[in-house]
Write a structure and sequence with these properties.
Radius of gyration: 35 Å
Shape: rod-shaped
Largest sheet: none
Strand content: under 5%
Structural class: mainly alpha
Number of helices: 3
Helix content: over 70%
């Protein structure tokens, strides 16, 4: 009975560690999405800063700004694909974290049940009156 409790406690510790790893992976994936979205916002603000202000400008300046704007747009489009992939990865990591949490809770419940069963078994064992073994004397020993 004690071995069952020890085994269940070990499984509970393993499940807790698995949940912590899954939660860390989910946090890393969510941070990656946040970072990529922040980069996309920075690219958009940089792109918007290239707009032509009032006043006289040369054709070369307009051409350079247009080329930079086109490059920034291409980069931001490529970043959009990376954001979509990172979001899918983050959703998958969150699902794995939830699954690991469910397994951890199940293991904790089974561990608690095993501890209660052990306590009940020990209590029942203590409730049985102790009986001494009576030594048997043969006829030869008494003589």
């Amino acid at each position: 009975m004690k071995a069952v409790v020890a085994r269940r406690a070990r499984v509970t510790r393993v499940r807790r560690a698995q949940h912590l790893l899954a939660a860390a992976d989910a946090a890393v994936a969510a941070d990656k999405v946040t970072q990529l979205e922040a980069n996309a916002a920075k690219l958009a603000s940089l792109r918007d800063s290239l707009s032509v202000g009032g006043g006289a400008t040369t054709g070369a300046v307009l051409s350079n700004r247009g080329e930079l704007a086109a490059r920034l747009d291409r980069i931001r489009d490529g970043l959009t694909d990376a954001i979509v992939g990172a979001q899918a990865s983050a959703r998958e990591a969150a699902g794995q974290r939830l699954e690991a949490r469910q397994k951890q809770e199940s293991a904790e419940k089974l561990d608690g049940q095993a501890v209660q069963a052990l306590a009940a078994w020990l209590e029942a064992r203590r409730a049985v009156p102790f009986r001494r073994k009576v030594a048997r004397y043969d006829q030869e020993d008494q003589g």
